[in-house]
Amino acid sequence: MGKMVYLMGKSSTGKDTIYRELLKSSSLQLKKIVPYTTRPMRAGEKEGREYFFTDEAGFLKLQDEGRVVEARAYHTCYGLWRYFTVDDGHIDLENENYLIIGTLESYIKTAGYFGKEKVIPVLLEVDDGVRLQRALDREWRQETPKYEELCRRYLSDAEDFSEEKIREAGVTKRFSNENLEHCLAEIEEYISG
Ligand SMILES: Nc1ncnc2c1ncn2[C@@H]1O[C@H](COP(=O)(O)OP(=O)(O)OP(=O)(O)O)[C@@H](O)[C@H]1O
Question: What GO molecular function annotations does the UniProt record carry, in alphabetical order (predicted)?
């Protein structure tokens, strides 16, 4: 029976970095479930790799078809940005293991959709100061840095990942990403065990 590893954490805790590394692991054999978003593509991103990029009309069409597993909406400085998972016919939890990035709320919905025993939460944590520095460094390298959005996300993270919400979601295990190699080793051991 397959399982779905659900990566979560505040902004710049290293979700994308760890996602890429875990996919490379030959012992884990994790497959991608590429989420969908209506936000504009960032420098270095590629259609169908980090996300499938669509627009509001695309989201509404998929929702009408009953194919949206979970959806999150963010009122950003640049308008409404949605992030969502689509049951687009490629998810085979009987035979395959998957890796996906999401939020606490989307984890709860996905675990409700596929079954809690099939969805394994992996919550990443990094000291707030270190995390803000990493976010700033990353944004600075973008062609058009969006510092306002960085600040908005940093502030909303505290609410989205409050201790109360973590408890409510039933997430007990946390993984510190101060050091990438240690963090990866710890996650790999947890998933395989
Ligand atoms: N252990 C680490 N040590 C130092 N830098 C790291 C580490 N992990 C990730 N980073 C760097 O921190 C930045 C944020 O990482 P990443 O983009 O993977 O985070 P994220 O959680 O996916 O962020 P967001 O949710 O904002 O998209 C990147 O520039 C990445 O290279």
Answer: kinase activity
